[in-house]
Amino acid sequence: MVNLPNKIIVNILSRLSVTTLCRFKCVSKPWLALISDPFFIKTQLNRNTDDNHHHDRLILLSSSSNFHSINFKSFQFQNNFEAFHLKFPSKQNPNLCKEIWGSCNGLLLMLNDYFSFFLVNPSTRQSKKLPISPFSMNSVDKCLCLDSYGLGYDSSSDDHKVVSIAHYGYGCDFDDNIVSVYSLRTSSWRRIEDSPYIHTPYGPSSGIFVNGALHWFASSFVGSNNSTVIASLDLTYENFGDVPSPVDDFVLFGELSVLGGCLCMIVSRRGGCKDVWVMKEYGVRDSWTKFTINHGCFPLCKALCLSKTGEFLLGICQKKLIFYNPKKKKFKRLVVRACPNHFVVGTYVESLVSPNCSNMITRQ
């Protein structure tokens, strides 16, 4: 490859897996510089994300804090899956992580048993422990504080941002939703405008990153009426708004996720049935499309991904992975070898984006 133009070399290498690229950094100093270059990192990330923005990996966190990964890039009702144990270097081991609070560009926002947050790249086995937001807890009054979090990317400033929304109440002299933003570029927290919504209708929740904004289920009081809204925080302008919901009444229980790059909303109904809404065109209420899961045995489910043939994958009660075909209305359990018995599940895309680097995506 010595005599090949650099553009062709980038074209070839960017098609390889992250594991292979990490090994290829040892080939030579020029390849180390090339694979570490922000432009190459962006090229590889864009190539690894298809036109529908599918995530291609599942991350499973077991009760013993072990990390497992499943490649489902081309799943179509097949059973040849295996969960691979991910081993982290001792110096960068995100110990005791049990919860996933966000996913963006190959990075995962995780919380451990000691309420410490980590940014983790499962593909490169890199991680970074984040400082605690000085606005997330009232240690003086010692009142109850419920925090919601989210992870996203601001393309205008080429910066990954972690958002903390601290809802103070029950014993405090004030009842606010204090919002702070951690910038990976500056490695610091700062406070922005308070949220006009109540972000804890079902308890603390993780923000879903779609179309440059983070989204949470929230409550909004209009007069004496309490309504459910999908609150959004634009990460470029750092202001709040809301996305039109497909339902007008108060949602007893709901969860947001991403399916095929689109905002997805699951609403539970009486009898255990669930309505799965997918917003085909962001911000357009009439573009919401509904699928109904007529099955009362799934009290808790999470929409994980959508296949090219229309099936989608559900995580059930932290114990099962289920395929569902909305056209045929059929279920099939996903059999995974070496899968932990009990797990927290999330999705991510393979990338070289580093949680320890300030300029990770673009190059002027």
TrEMBL record:
Pfam families: F-box, FBA_1. This is F-box domain-containing protein. Residues 1-43 form the F-box domain. CDD domains: F-box_AtFBW1-like. PROSITE patterns: FBOX. SMART domains: FBOX. InterPro entries: F-box-assoc_dom_typ1, F-box-assoc_interact_dom, F-box-like_dom_sf, F-box_dom, Gal_Oxase/kelch_b-propeller, SCF_F-box_component.
